[in-house]
Amino acid sequence: MEFSISNRARIISLLMIGVGVISLVVSYIYQDSDRFWANLLINGLFFTFISLGAMFFISLQYATEAAWSVMVRRIYEAVTRFLPFGIGVLTLVFLASTFHMNHLYHWMDESATHEYVIASTLDSAHPEYLNELVDGAIENVKYDYIIAGKTAYLNVPFFWIRTLVYFAVFLFFMNFFRKQSLREDQEGGTAINTKSYKRGAVFLIFFAVFSSTLAWDWIMSIDTHWFSTMFGWYTFSGMWVTAMIVSLITVLYLKSKGLLPTVNDSHIHDMGKWMFATSFLWTYLWFSQFMLIWYSNIPEEVTYFQQRFETYALPMFIMVFINFALPMVILMARDAKRNVRLLITIGTIIFFGHWFDVYLMVIPGVVFDDWQGLELTEIGMMIGFLGGFILVTLKALASARLVPEKSPYLEESIQHQI
Amino acid sequence: MANSVIYAMYDDDQTLLKAAKELVGKGIKVKDCYSPFPVHGIDPVIGVTRTRLGIVSFMFGLGGLSLAMLGTWYFMIHDWPMNIGGKPNFAYHLNMPAFVPILFEFTVFCAAHGMALTYLIRNKTLPGMPAVNPDPRTTDNRFVLEIDSHDNQGMTTDALLEAIKGTEVFELNHKKY
User: Fold this and answer.
1) How many interface pairs between A and B have CB atoms less than 8 angstroms apart?
2) What is the DSSP letter of A402?
3) What is the per-residue DSSP string for B72-110?
4) How many domains does chain B have?
5) Chain B interface, mutation test: which of A264, A287, A328, most B Cβ atoms within 10 Å?
6) Same domain membership, residue B89 and residue B57
7) pTM score of the predicted model
8) A367-390 pLDDT, tens per residue?
């Protein structure tokens, strides 16, 4: 059972990448540079999150020794293969931030975290900031004591250490799961599955911590003054639901090509349930974060939503409503979760809904109230990334058998019936 | 002619499933099946239609949601506007986010309890109701198919018994009623 990329799929994804490259160039030349980098960050995050969500799901299935999903494991594995590319884009953005080519992360600005500045250097390109009062130093008017109070955690070296540790751990486990899974195709037996089972549990522990901290580091620190203890979970639920959508749509695509004949209605139904349930989880966390902040109405917390209410209210509420109500109302019935057309329609809509969710996590902290709506280049860049993601995923699918044929759980998965 | 009901007992769920398929294949209508745990795949064989419990649950949930909305509106907005933390208290939609937790909880409460009670009433298994299973062993490790001669007018009781004896039956009882 081999899958090969059809010419049509290849051309379409290449065209999408072309649109993306054009938008990238246009945006780089004509658009505000922060907005350009913010969009690179948004897309890098969103598509990396899909891969991370799929990786989390694979390790979850290993750790719980779930048998039903063995049949579709290769699809999740293929979805994780975008990770190195996403990491590349994120590294680029973080490097640009570190070297002040953009100002996404306010706390990286030295002037915000130092109390004094050497007066004679003030008008130069690189004023000398410092924290103790020496001769020739005057008070720094840009000093921000809230940000300065966070430097123990939010400082450039520690940020890079954390980021590189995340990247290393993610890449290591991605390659590990894939390699073991492919080795199982050759050797069979139960030893490999047992090993993956143990490593799956280990990855879950790492991921439990990293999914929260990476959300703080990469996204929450954009709104440096603000903090929310729910933010990590909220980001994590977003990545989980998009991973579920993407893998389900990929399975349905492959089935429409006549592949994966042993994937039956029950597998589709279960994947639909995941999409439905994680949509709920996302809504639950989004609303919990919102309601606690709205209710307590503390100035340092409420700024986040105040800004979004003033400039982004309508698109934000439409996004939340669609991401919540659409799967909730339509996918609740049993038959709907077995209806291919319905699943694809809803999945596609809330896929873009969740892209816009990531967009709204980043953009308000970058362009503030100077926002008139989505720009064409922003949509174009997203399309480009999507094309790249599709191409990478399809290539990964074509590079291995679509079903792990020697998995000890395969027979149980074939018999899956609910 | 007096009708009779036949209880065919099996000692394994797979044997029961096989027997049910055989009997249905011969055109015999199986009325019901008693087992200590759900037997996978028996429903379509003996012609059990799909449960409507999901719809009931949805209705109860909707009812709970409406009731909770009515309640929060009446207690917190209409009857005596409650000033809690300075939140707007003269319009329902402005204070709505504060009510979402209780709306959610009450929806779940009504859906779950309504569904459970409906299930118990519909199955006649409310606490204290007389047991309807033909043999207490079906709650332990035996599986029983119930075949009513009233449903199988084309066959005599003896023919039915003969057909059932062809399966791997563990114990066979029948009684007239």
Assistant:
1) 20
2) S
3) HIIIIIIIS---STT---S-HHHHHHHHHHHHHHHHHHH
4) 2
5) A287
6) yes
7) 0.91
8) 988 899 899 999 999 999 999 999
